[in-house]
Amino acid sequence: MSADRLDLVSKLYQPSGWPRVLEAASGGPSRAPLVVDLDPTTFCDLACPECISGKLLNQGRFTPERLAALAEELIALSVRAVVLIGGGEPLAHRGTRGVLRILGEAGLAVGVVTNGTMIRQNLEELARYASWVRVSVDAGTRETFGLFRPDRKGRSVFDKVIENMRLLAEAKRGVLGYSFLVMSRQEPDGRTVTNHHEVLRAAELAHDIGCDYFETKAMFDDDHHIVQVPQEVLASVDRQLAEAARLESETFQLVNSSTLTSLRGHAGPVQPKAYHRCQVAELRTLVTPSGVYVCAYHRGNPLAKIGDAVTDDLATIWQDSDRGMIDPSWDCRFHCARHRSNLELDRIARGEGRPPLAADYDPFI
């Protein structure tokens, strides 16, 4: 996972997506998105107290037949990459294996964001077709995992997740990542529980498993604003990451998310935006059982819903919808990972962009 793969601005200049990037930069509608986030289901087998999608869970799923049809529609639209993600756990849907196969055999890049509990059941398809799999672990021990990522009976399934990751590390063709969200909360008895002290231990475990990278991230609140943390917590995380740097090599990297970078820069929870239309919404979209939305940050927001993929095909939804219904200056004051991409699209529109690259390297813009 090279640094270039984390540079969302540079990804805009890849030749295969350049025509649609120019369409988006022009302010007009694009013929189709380049990347689609797809939620197969809203159901999840864990009961994480800090889940940002907690209010949207366990409310529906696509039928296996409709999910397979959606995969074919994505191919017909010339979508280049699909991320299987969700308010729920994407691998909990029995049709996800078929989607991985359909998309993979058609040559689309596929990413998977998972809690890791069902990797074993989907191992063959994940190993063969996934460009990358990112597992949300958020702990380095069984005990801390149980505090922040318990199952519905309150148990820790940490050992199961780690063993599943080891299986995938041995079989995979793509990239495997260990994701660590820095979290803390105050319990009813006044105690504060946190996971920040396990960053180093988790990084060492990720390296031992055979992951390709270890990523640390800051926590969002329900409105996607970055949760501010005490300076001593951030300092502790940075000390652990500095010690973990000894693990880095050509095959294992430490990844710093833009959210942690914002905390270090004291950016605050609000990310101001002066533009009134999100041009990236012409290049990415979110498809869920409850609707198609302008982007993943607005999952479940009825004011950002552009269609219903349960009843309508994606081509019709895209053709008939107005992706300009959201005003970033007002509706997106949270931290957006693609804010800089929007600024770059504006530069491209003014003729101040870079020349397109000679070759593609990563379609996940």
TrEMBL record:
GO molecular function, one term: catalytic activity
Keywords: Iron, Iron-sulfur, Metal-binding, S-adenosyl-L-methionine
Glycosyltransferase keyword on record: no
Name of the molecule in the record: Radical SAM protein
Domain of life of the native organism: Bacteria
Organism whose genome encodes this protein: Streptomyces natalensis ATCC 27448
Location of the Radical SAM core domain: 30-253
Coiled-coil residue windows: none
InterPro entries linked: Aldolase_TIM, Radical_SAM_PqqE_MftC-like, rSAM, rSAM_sf
UniProt keyword Iron-sulfur, yes or no: yes
Pfam families, alphabetized: Radical_SAM (PF04055)
